[in-house]
Amino acid sequence: MEKIKILLLIVSVALCKFVSGQNFEGEIIYSNTFKSKLPNFTDEQLQLLIGDKQEYFIKEGNYKSLSNGQALTVQLYDDKTNRIYNKTPKSDTLYWFDASVNTDTVISFEIKKNVEKILGYECDAIIMKTKTGTTTIYYNAKYKVDNRPYTKHNYSNWAFYVNQTKALPLKTVVETNHLKWKVRLLKLSL
Question: Which residues, including other chains, have CB under 8 Å from residue 56's CB and lie 6 or more apart?
Fold first, then answer.
């Protein structure tokens, strides 16, 4: 009986530690939807090009993204080199670029509390105005992200976002003059 009590105490402490402080590591599956604002480029063409599904795997500051699009199928981030490696479906070669480069700087931002419920979780939103449009990211603080590995990951304003929220995106809406792109959480797995 004493061994069971000790085991239950250990499990309880471990669960409390996980719920209260552990950064998310695991798999996230998102769906993509698009609305084209270009006259000769349809929503369906955007969907085929970028894909309607993304699978992300995050571990120890690195991530891998798999997409079912025709333009890009794999994206890998290595936090040691601050490089993003890309693979297209028609090549077996990985091409990299420096993640410190950002072509669309945040001009202003605001955070709104409790704006939407996603998969049962009440989400806050950060609204980032950039030179080319607006990105709104919905998040719940329960799904923490350690911002330290991403301090130089300026591509797509990731370092800025993670520094402000320290949370995993559950939904993202990007709106520019060319398109409106919604990325919505389908599933999280630890």
Answer: 27, 28, 29, 30, 63, 64, 65
Task: Write out the chain's pLDDT in tens, 190 residues.
Answer: 443 333 323 333 333 333 345 899 999 999 999 999 999 999 999 999 999 999 999 999 999 999 999 998 999 999 999 999 999 998 899 999 999 999 899 999 999 999 999 999 999 999 999 999 999 999 999 999 999 999 999 999 999 999 999 999 999 999 999 999 999 999 999 7
Q: How many CB atoms lie within 10 A of CB 51?
A: 18
Amino acid at 36: S
Structure tokens at 92: 């077996």
